[in-house]
Amino acid sequence: MSNNTGNVLTALLTGAAVGAGLGILYAPDKGKKTRKKIKKSAVKAKDDIAQSLTHAKEEFSKSADAKKEEFEEKLEDTLSNMSYKADDILVALEKKLEDLREKNAQLQK
């Protein structure tokens, strides 16, 4: 959808919402009926917003849990790889140490 079409659609929806609100306020109903309509609309809007927030919170929680699990798996893999590399380094250092001991023993003779 182009930006111009989006602007037109937004303007139409805004106009419809304002028109509906003005229609309720200027309708030939008694004040009590008008207040009931406004209250009913406000309660419905509040419920819709609360439901949307609950849904968004649930989705965010699911997403956060998935990201946490993914992070923990990557951390475990990284630590495992580092452990193997540390073992390789220790083996290499032990071999170098043994070589140095042998050379030192030969020099001491």
TrEMBL record:
Keyword terms, alphabetized: Membrane, Transmembrane, Transmembrane helix
Protein name from the UniProt record: YtxH domain-containing protein
Signal sequence bounds: none
InterPro entries: Desiccation-related_membrane, YtxH
Highest taxon listed in the record's lineage: Bacteria
TM regions (residue ranges): 6-27
Keyword Transmembrane appears in the UniProt entry: yes
Organism: [Muricauda] lutisoli
